[in-house]
Amino acid sequence: MITFVTQLWNMKFNIDKDLGAIKHKVIIGNTEMTPDGINAEENELFVRFLEGKESFVVLAQLDGSTTLVKWEDNAEKMRKHGASLRSSLPKDVVDLAVIGNGDVTVDFLEGFCLSSYQFLKYFKDKEEKEYKLTTIHLNGGVDEQKIKEIESVVSAVFWSRDMVNEPVSFLNADQLAHEIENLSKHTSLEVSVLEKAQIEALKMGGLLAVNQGSVDQPTFTIVEYKGENAVNEKPIVLVGKGVVYDTGGLSLKPTPNSMDLMKSDMGGAACMAGAIYLAALQKLPVHLIALIPATDNRPGLNAYAPGDVVTMFNGTTVEVLNTDAEGRMILADALSYSKKFDPELVIDAATLTGAAVRAIGAHGSVVMGNAEDHYFEALEKAGNDAHERTVRFPFWDEYAEEMKSPIADLKNLGGPTAGMITAGKFLEHFVDSPYIHIDLAGPAYISAADAYRTKGGTGVGVRLLYHFLKNYPNG
Prior knowledge:
Layout: E1 3-5, E2 12-15, E3 24-29, H1 40-50, E4 56-61, E5 64-70, H2 75-88, E6 95-99, H3 102-114, H4 126-129, E7 135-139, H5 144-165, H6 173-184, E8 190-194, H7 196-202, H8 205-211, E9 219-226, E10 236-240, E11 242-246, H9 267-281, E12 287-297, E13 309-311, E14 317-319, H10 327-337, E15 345-350, H11 354-360, E16 365-369, H12 373-386, E17 390-392, H13 398-401, E18 410-411, H14 419-428, E19 435-439, E20 445-446, E21 456-457, H15 462-470
Parallel strand pairs: 2-7, 3-5, 3-6, 6-7, 10-12, 10-15, 11-12, 14-18, 15-19, 16-17
Antiparallel strand pairs: 1-2, 4-5, 8-9, 9-12, 13-14, 16-19, 20-21
Helix pairs in contact: 2-3, 3-5, 5-9, 8-10, 9-15, 10-14, 12-15
């Protein structure tokens, strides 16, 4: 028996041969791949099942149940089958046996495990609500390394979801930095946190301006991972927007379906911290640096105002037309700061624009940038593999013209159309290296569960970037 235990997730996998005492079983296979380890009665049920049209069925059997799942050559379908099992499985089940062979079983387990996420911290009766499952017993030809990979992925995604789901009453900028420090323990990650005095010394005008309305200090967190035998000579820099709560500032948001969801406005920060953590868990041969500027955006104290002119970290002056276009202000400072690392590639992720949501909804992320095509092709492939899909938008220079100000170098708001692109062109101004911008405003936080993407924070981007990085540089 081999046991794997995650750092952040109270579950384990056992690779067993004797499953006789376990009541709840899952059997995965097709007419060409009958799984090992099933008894005669189960085999008879399975043969009859394969002759039908259903892909997934739960059968009451004796004093337990057997779930039959057809092997399908489609990773996303298998993940969804896994999510379906989680929704049908009673909460009080402690042990589950999964009998199946090959990668399709791994895909099934990934969907099952990702759909097992619960955010119960603030429930008085959380012990009654929580899933009791502690062990999944595996029997069949399943790669142990891929099981370990699932555990790492689940740990990183669950952490990211937790951060997005936490309210600002707990997760202010300082606490976010503290959570990232805690995440790095028992890994090779190196973390340093710059506080307000250091940010002031660096003259990060964008981050400081957005923070002016808050009683809480901003933070700027730097995380570095150096994988052995890294395939990139210069680091890849990951930048994540860390607006832990966004009222819109003096350009106040309306409440319904807007401000009430804005604890999620640090989804980009959660994505990038989760991605570099996952790279460290899996010991990927890459050199990464993550930059997380963080603050809330409030209308109090000496809040920055429409009409203000802000001098950014790189000396660019920006006319503020709307204080609710704050994400680009803090990202711009971090993107400028990336220059000191002479990166091979810079990627940012942010819940940046409503325009991205209106364009493609919650089914994917908008991407754009000036990096070479092969980077975007690799990112698209990674998105298809993880089913965290990307849609590349144009990045023509004409969009940058809309960001010019009559009284400063730039303004922080473009015209009424293509807002996701004008925002990207604003950010491009602050990057010297090849650049990819990911606007994940649509899928970062969802109002209803979508298979293994649970309601609330989804952790989107973590798996996307992991698939991109583990195949870097060839995709």
